[in-house]
Amino acid sequence: MRKLIFAINITLDGCVDHTKQIVSDEGPEYLEYFVQLMRDADMQIFGRKTYELMVPYWPEVAKDPSSSKEDREFAVSFNSLDKVVFSRSLKSVDDQNARIVSTDIRDEILKLKKERGKNILVGGVDIPSQLVELGLIDEFRFVVAPTIVGEGRRLFNGASLPEKLQLKLVESKVFESGRIALRYAKQRQV
Prior knowledge:
By secondary structure, this protein is of the alpha/beta class. The protein has helices at about 30-40, 50-55, 55-65, 70-80, 105-115, 125-135; strands at about 5-10, 40-45, 80-85, 100, 120, 140-145, 165-175, 180-190.
């Protein structure tokens, strides 16, 4: 069965709102980390808001000759993935590799996990929160920025887990920028 991996950037105080996060020079290893994550996957899951932040931004970066090598690699990897966008309001998508799904999220994710293929990535906040509540996420990848922003949306704010979720640290990596990538596997509910 394919793994469903939730990956997100987060600050030390739990902020996941990219508009509030302090952007510093992440260095090439930061984007390389996410490029490798995408190479190990063949599909990404989004809600409408996150999808509309990512597309058309990354497809445009892939075409822009003035983009950095790292940004272009990320953009090409992003563009190559199939995308499923959960939305009841979105009527069309601008990406030939994307499709809109407005049916039950649980049933669709279970179906996708049973299909042949590589890992499935999910990003954003709303859809991953729903998937955590449903117990469908197999692995969590947090890239923690060494900043405290004091405001903005917090991870799993408003999510209601039926029970505590016990995670096991599988891997960690410290970037030169001070960011830390943490990889957790779901163990069991407590």
